[in-house]
Amino acid sequence: MVMVGHPVVEGVGGIRGFVNAYVFQDESGCYLIDATFSKTAKPIRMAFERAGVPIDTVGQLLLTHQHMDHVRGASELHRRATGAKISCHPADAPYIDGRIRAQVPFLLRPFVRVPPVPIDRTIGGGDTVGPLRVVHVPGHTAGELAFYHPARKLLFSGDAVCESKGRLVLPAPRAASDLAQAVASLRVLRELEVETLLPGHGLPVTRDVAGRIDELIARAPREYLGA
Ligand SMILES: [Zn+2]
Ligand SMILES: [Zn+2]
Predict the structure, then answer these.
(1) What CATH number is attached to the domain comprising 121?
(2) How far is the CA of 65 from the centre of ligand 1 (A)?
(3) Which ligand minimizes its atom distance to the CA of 199?
(4) How many angstroms separate the CA atoms of 177 and 200, rounded?
(5) Cα of 100 to ligand 1 centre, how many Å?
(6) Domain membership flag for residue 128
(7) Residue 1: inside a domain, yes or no?
(8) Which of 46, 124, 199, 204 is deepest in the core (most CB within 10 A)?
(9) Per-residue pLDDT for 17 more than 90?
(10) How far does the centroid of ligand 1 lie from the alpha carbon of residue 206, in Å?
């Protein structure tokens, strides 16, 4: 199969920007994790175009959470990747499908529109989508999800944990719906055996993921909770 995006490990391509999307492919199909901030999903469309893979190859679009930088391109993908089933957690679904207005920072409201997109399936911890296990890691948002591939030890972590300058971090604390819960959710991720961490922001981590999560767990209460 042809790799779409920047090759990370076998079957995983990264579409990189200030927010990342990922394309995971195996014999069961093509999975797109997150939709980018681009209203036209341009980085994703370009990655498929460059690879010569039609975008309607995507069978599943998995949204890690409702924030606009991850979902704004979803509506355009819905239009173009016509076979793709769109999934997210029920707690975040109303913000994505338009029942509740998308959360856009006040200053950006006059400029940024987040087109709503219908959700085909709501998913939660323990569900599976093909070979990927859904992991509910609330805190950054109530419906924050990570996607774990047990056989391949891949973790698409969304914004539950991100990378910055070689360290694991939580994204901007003010963006979190419940920061203490976000810190607690790190332990859920720590229980997974992970060789390749694919974060929503920052670079993939392929070495000593467990040690780095431990290191974050150790400093998080002080760094994020003032404890
Ligand atoms: Zn976020
Ligand atoms: Zn984000």
Answers:
(1) 3.60.15.10
(2) 7
(3) 2
(4) 17
(5) 17
(6) yes
(7) no
(8) 199
(9) yes
(10) 22
Does 102 have pLDDT greater than 90?
Answer: no
- pLDDT, tens digit, for every residue of 153-179? 999 999 999 999 999 999 998 889 999
Q: Among 155, 156, 149, which Cα is nearest to 130's?
A: 149
In 38-153, beta strands by DSSP E: 60-62, 85-88, 121-122, 128-129, 132-136, 145-149
* Domain membership of residue 208 as a residue range: 6-225
In this predicted model, what pLDDT tens digit does every residue of 186-214 receive, in sequence order? 999 999 999 999 999 999 999 999 999 99
Q: Is 147 part of any domain?
A: yes
Q: Is 74 a domain residue?
A: yes
Task: Note the ligand closest to the C-alpha atom of 18.
Answer: 2
Closest listed ligand to the CA of 21: 2
Residue 62 has pLDDT above 90, yes or no: yes
The total of structural domains in the chain comes to 1
The pLDDT of residue 171 is: 94
